[in-house]
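Severity: low
Component: inverse-folding endpoint
Summary: output formatting inconsistent between runs
Steps to reproduce: submit the following structure tokens with default settings.
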């Protein structure tokens, strides 16, 4: 047994399903899953039902989060076709603006380039704009943001071309950051998954895409799960929605990768703590931490705390187990049991917190 303590980890990209998708996940179940995965802060996306695109929907979302969360949290707001000015006034209460430029789950997709530009100009310069874009759309939005002179964050980079393009842009000094999701790092199209269960956006890549992500580790600012829970019934049904649960399995998978020499502990801590804290201006509490046994080996079970009830990583052998998590001095998870009550998590943008 080798127990190591890491600082509080942040997952900058999750989907809790409240309001509107409570049968898939709630704040109470999704943050229980996050704690079981060693995550102390989750930043939640706005493609709920209804989507979070104005003050009233943000009020509802933050109230639901505050009532249910067992770990600390923040919320993104969504860019819509005509809410650029109004949504920007909410920047202090949100962790970022999410722009969906590609095919996704929910109705927040923006097709019109002039709308992209309006949002890039309206959102405060020191705030985060997180973008879902791939291929030619990714190239266009990077160019546009660079010409306006503002930073953007690229969500879940999955392909060799995309990570290569980001690497070149960063080298040119373009102000962008990006994240990679565990399913794009540890799974690919050759992974044996039933077709509905394999649906995710961006899609799983080729083994070459996967290799390219690892080769460009230095370009990847954050690891983020894109925890997108849907039930097994939905995944195995006629019209399977895209998305994988992921918060419970990311850290064990990354710790396993350290044993294979793919990265080291500092690479994990920088991408799950230091960079997220810097990029989003998050409060840091020295009494928020996670203890892992880096030697414990086990097989990922078929389901865990997430209400979705499945994982694409089931059966994989991992080495590295989450033993204890503390949030601001209180033990929140211990040896397989979630201790923190629903409603004990704190909004990272609450009054008095550091803002971007
Ligand atoms: C996400 C979801 O289900 O909310 N699905 C996914 O495949 N990643 C939506 C998204 O992040 O685009
Ligand atoms: Zn997502």
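Observed output (run 2 of 3):
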């Amino acid at each position: 047994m080798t127990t190591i303590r890491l600082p509080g980890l942040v997952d900058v990209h999750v989907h809790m399903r409240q309001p509107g998708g409570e049968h898939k996940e709630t704040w109470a179940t999704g943050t229980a899953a996050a704690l079981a995965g060693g995550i102390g802060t989750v930043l939640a996306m706005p493609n709920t039902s209804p989507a979070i695109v104005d003050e009233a929907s943000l009020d509802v979302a933050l109230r639901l989060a505050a009532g249910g969360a067992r770990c600390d949290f923040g919320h993104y707001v969504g860019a819509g076709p005509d809410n650029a000015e109004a949504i920007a006034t909410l920047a202090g209460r949100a962790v970022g603006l999410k722009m969906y430029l590609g095919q996704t789950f929910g109705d927040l997709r923006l097709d019109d380039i002039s709308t992209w530009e309006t949002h890039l100009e309206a959102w405060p310069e020191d705030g985060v704009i997180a973008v879902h874009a791939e291929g030619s759309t990714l190239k266009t939005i990077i160019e546009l943001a660079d010409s306006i002179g503002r930073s953007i964050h690229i969500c879940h980079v999955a392909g060799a071309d995309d990570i290569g393009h980001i690497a070149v842009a960063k080298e040119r000094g373009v102000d962008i950051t990006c994240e990679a999701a565990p399913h794009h790092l540890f799974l690919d199209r050759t992974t044996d998954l039933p077709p509905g269960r394999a649906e995710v956006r961006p899609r799983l890549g080729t083994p070459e895409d996967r290799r390219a992500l690892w080769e460009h580790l230095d370009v990847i600012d954050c690891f983020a799960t894109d925890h997108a829970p849907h039930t097994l019934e939905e995944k195995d049904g006629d019209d399977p929605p895209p998305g994988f649960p992921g918060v419970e399995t990311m850290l064990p998978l990354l710790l396993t990768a350290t044993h294979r020499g793919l990265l080291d502990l500092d690479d994990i801590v920088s991408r799950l703590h230091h960079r997220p804290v810097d990029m989003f201006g998050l409060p840091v509490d020295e009494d928020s931490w996670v203890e892992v046994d880096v030697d414990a080996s086990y097989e990922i079970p078929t389901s865990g705390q997430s209400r979705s009830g499945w994982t694409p990583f089931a059966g994989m052998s991992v080495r590295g187990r989450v033993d204890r998590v503390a949030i601001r001095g209180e033990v929140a998870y211990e040896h397989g049991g979630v201790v923190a009550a629903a409603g004990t998590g704190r909004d990272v943008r609450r009054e008095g917190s550091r803002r971007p």
